[in-house]
## 1
Amino acid sequence: MTFQREELSDLENKVYRKSLDLLTDHARKVQDIMRSLVLMIDNFFSSTGSMDEHYEMVSKLEEEADEIKIELIDTLTKSAPGLLYREDFLRLMFNVEKIAETAQTVSRFIMKLSKNDMRMDPAIAEGLISLAGESLSAYEKLRSCIMALAMNPMYALKLVGEVHSAENKVDLMQQDLDLRIIINVKDHGLVLVYRDLVANLELMVDTMRDASDDVRILAMHRVL
């Protein structure tokens, strides 16, 4: 019986390490999605580049992220169905996946705006570009947080606070931009378009905060 317990412990440890590796790969792929989205937003407002090509890249990267997600689910549910903290791994992965899905939604929306030859007020466009850039910055902090899980759980806990600070910064920017849209944009249809873009960017960063809380739980398992 002692041998069996040790063997199971070794198996669970291997699955735990593999799950961390897959989480890191998944987070890296979603970072590529975020970078592609920010480039798409910048190019849309500067009228450079093909929105179709940007959208296809985001969709391709999202599919690749989905493949990693499926592998992680298989690892957690088939290789070690009794693995401790399995639900915590899955919750983190699904939140990161939600960020990728929201990014794809935004990219699809921008592609449609481009096809309808819609252009934004320069001041609003500048605000959206800045908001997208800060969203990417927040995600880069989240990815660093996830990477720290394997090597330094205490540092991962510290980085959680940085993700929360980044989310607070984006919240303030979103509120300011939303108010500018309401006050300055007279076309009600455009108000809806602008506010939908802002809301989706905010949703992504709110999800990053939730994902960082999932990292906190996994890190605390390692340090307590």
## 2
Amino acid sequence: MELQNLTPIEPRTIKANVLEILRQSIIDGSLAPGTEFNQAQIAERLGISRGPVREAMAQLEQEGLIESTPYKVVVITRMTRRYVEELYSVRIALEELAVERAIERITDEHLAYFNEIIEEMRRAARRDDKTRMLDLDLHFHEYLLQIADHHLALKLWRVVEVGVRRCLHTRHKIYTFLDEVVGSHPTLVTALAERNLELARIALNEHIMESLSHILVNLPPDDASEEA
């Protein structure tokens, strides 16, 4: 397990930060897929007791970032084709629901904020700031869920979002030009502004399926990834 990128944290910030530190380390690959999630080594590297690491494990497992093997060893999950396809099938269901509800509730203020996000995405692209672009991309979609005013859907999105972030972290690295990430976001906002549900659905589906195809094309068949 690669632990060099983990740095000690202050005891007073343990509860607030340990889960996010471990989650981000899995997403960015510092804790590599397929390797053992070793509580003792991680706790030692972070300079904390095993308790906070153990407490974080339940959430990480719920988010699909770690899993228990038949031999009772906990490992960092691999990003398999099946995992990505299942994740995106849930994602598209949640966002289609969000579009249907948001189109009835959206205001000029909401639309203006969407456009602010898009402009900031373009600025991030010009700076080649992949981290900022990823945050903005996901914020755009969470904001759509917020406008939809469906509490359970928003809670489910925040669980799914962790897996989507992991996928997009990989996807954004393959672009030659980051402005490609802006993609069909403006088309979706235009459709929402026009209260055109059909166009909004088309724009959303094209956007999500394009993202899915970019991710899958860079993944080996599941049997190959499991043998690696």
